Amino acid sequence: AMAKNPEEHDELLEKNHWLFESFRSNLTHSHDPAFTAKFLELPSLFYVEQYLSPIEPIDLHKSYSYFEEYFAKKLENELKDLYVQYYTTKYEHNLKAIGERSLKNRCLYFLTKTGEQKYIEMAEKQFNTCANMTDQVAALSALNGQDSPEKENCYNSFYNAWCKDPVVFNSFLRIKSADKVESIFNWIKETKNNDKNYHADNPNHISALFGAFSKINSQYHVNYKESYNFLAEEIIHLDKTNPSIASHLAKYFDLWKQYAQPYKSEMETALKKVKSQKDLSKNTYEIVSRALGDT
Description:
Radius of gyration: 20 Å
Shape: globular
Distance between the termini: 34 Å
Number of helices: 18
């Protein structure tokens, strides 16, 4: 359920205190780190949206973020203890180490959601001292949404180290485009148009840059008119050279009818703009027509 203010959120969550006690018990008596890490994975926003109608995207994102913060503060001690228990700068590649690494990084993610500076610094320390990319990427993801110099330092360091590697740069694009800060839309436009390491003919780069932003970033809906049109223009442009990736991006509008106004109308406008193009590929035309209900 979604509430209109923090007080209503607290009331709703307190009514479900058993849920947090269940998590607390699992964290306190964790015997299988891999299972506990999986237990801590919340359903994605994109998944949740499929079961809502009408979708109020801004309210949904606020509720989701508030739940993460509430969850983290409620279970802070247990999360911190597990993080400390499994923190290491050494790297081992076996099932036990993979499970422990996964749990440690899930704990770090939630701890940063408390907003406390000590956990922001903890994520920065992990980024700077870890011996594997999994932990570096996890630290970046944990810092997302934070307006802090620590986050910017980590992103700059990662970019400078890996921007010439198209595979790793793909991970950078995916994580960064999910960062829910006000400046992210401008960053996406700047990256698409001016970053020489972004290859507009690389399907993985395209999906990474547009995927997380369009599917799970609240800023996509904050700037909804410009954002939806921006995605439509990209679909039109790509359809001429790579109809497969163009049709893939067009699917991001599939749930438009479930959205509340004014998001619904603007998504419909974007879809109709794509459909109106001459010589649209068969794949993209079918995806857009089906979304509009014209088939």
